[in-house]
């Protein structure tokens, strides 16, 4: 980007929409596919987890990010995590703001500009790794769309107190809210990776993986009974060897006719070593569930289990925490970019806000019943207070129960 183009872009950011990427590449040379091809590690050891913890203190997310990608290959982790993240982004979204036109426009554009799949991945990165990253890309004839990037290429430089991203074009500074970058840090502003779930999940995942393969090895080695061919004392070596060959070739529905003195036996292993591996897998699964869902009973279907909805599976305070963190990231770094592109720079100061409604359906029903009961009680209290020339403050009552009201003249 030359000096003139850079100056023009800065001026336009104050008077009109910013120049964001168009088509398959950015104006200043950055391509849509910013992340390089990741290196896949299929087998992890506890020593690898320790190395990831040590390297993360330097600000490098390479090993922790690669481990987080491996964690999603586990069925238990993938299932429970998707309930927490995808279940969250599918909850109703409420929009508010000083400008009704912007609020209505955001409600129409939200799902297309911020795809649910990308938000779920970004939220998952934020909780598991402690930090997630995304960028806006622009499709021809459309508004810019948020895309999640692989966080393993993030790097925090302590000396600069700044994040960088290792792209295919080199190391790029991450400037959250600049029209391109979105940095999601539910783990906090300082060392967010230390508050992620990946150390606990990594330990359980690695133990479970090794327990699984050891159990498979046990099954392949000792699960099948050993075949014993018994030859009579008077048989020749040729006869005994021939009989043994027939036993070796034993297949499905094999039939043997044995004369007196000849015999076939099966020797089965009485060892119960496989139970150790089974216990490792079970314990690891329980640790995974508690780490992600915050509870065990309703996830595994024990006492108190009702259904598979997010409110009954994931602890309610975790749902609210995820919703608040993701909404804060969008409201401060992403929705202003949408307002700038949709209505121009003047609309940024009035950009609306989004928030997920995490109220469980059961609580909403109870709240509605309580509000109706309070309304009926207010009428009764008005009759009782007439003699004292008092009345119930219905405005305060409606505020407490979240009932929107407006002036009759404005309504007409």
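^ Assign residues to that structure.
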């Amino acid at each position: 980007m030359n000096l003139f183009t850079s100056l023009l872009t800065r001026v336009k950011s104050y008077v009109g929409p910013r120049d964001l990427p168009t088509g398959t590449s950015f104006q200043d040379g950055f391509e849509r596919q910013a992340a390089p091809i990741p290196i896949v590690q299929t087998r992890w050891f506890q020593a690898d987890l320790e190395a990831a913890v040590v390297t993360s203190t330097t600000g490098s997310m390479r090993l922790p990010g690669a481990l987080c990608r491996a964690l999603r290959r586990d069925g238990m982790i993938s299932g429970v995590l998707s309930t927490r993240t995808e279940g969250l982004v599918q909850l109703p979204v409420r929009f508010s703001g000083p400008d009704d036109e912007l609020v209505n426009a955001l409600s129409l554009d939200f799902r297309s500009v911020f795809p649910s799949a990308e938000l779920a991945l970004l939220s998952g990165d934020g909780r598991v790794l402690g930090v997630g990253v995304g960028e806006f890309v622009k499709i021809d004839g459309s508004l810019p769309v948020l895309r999640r990037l692989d966080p393993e290429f993030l790097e925090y430089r302590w000396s600069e107190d700044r994040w960088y991203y290792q792209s295919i074009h080199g190391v790029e500074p991450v400037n959250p809210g600049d029209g391109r970058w979105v940095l999601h840090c539910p783990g906090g502003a300082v060392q967010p990776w230390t508050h992620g779930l990946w150390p606990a999940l990594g330990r359980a995942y690695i133990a479970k993986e090794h327990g699984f393969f050891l159990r498979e090895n046990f099954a392949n080695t000792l699960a099948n009974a050993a075949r014993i061919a018994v030859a009579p004392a008077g048989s020749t070596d040729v006869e005994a060897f021939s009989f043994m060959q027939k036993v070796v070739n034993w297949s499905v529905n094999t039939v043997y006719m044995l004369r007196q003195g000849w015999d076939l036996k099966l020797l089965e292993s009485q060892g119960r070593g496989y139970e150790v591996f089974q216990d490792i897998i079970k314990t690891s699964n329980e640790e995974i569930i508690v780490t992600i869902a915050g509870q065990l009973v309703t996830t595994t279907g024990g006492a108190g289990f009702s259904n598979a909805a997010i409110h009954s599976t994931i602890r309610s305070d975790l749902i609210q925490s995820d919703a608040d963190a993701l909404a804060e990231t969008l409201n401060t770094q992403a929705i202003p970019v949408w307002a700038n592109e949709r209505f121009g720079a003047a609309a940024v100061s009035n950009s609306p806000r989004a928030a997920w409604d995490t109220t469980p359906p059961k609580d909403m029903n109870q709240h509605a019943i309580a509000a109706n009961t309070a309304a009926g009680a207010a009428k009764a209290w008005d009759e009782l207070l007439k003699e004292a020339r008092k009345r119930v403050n219905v405005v305060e009552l409606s505020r407490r129960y979240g009932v929107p009201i407006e002036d009759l003249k404005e309504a007409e």
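The radius of gyration is 32 Å.
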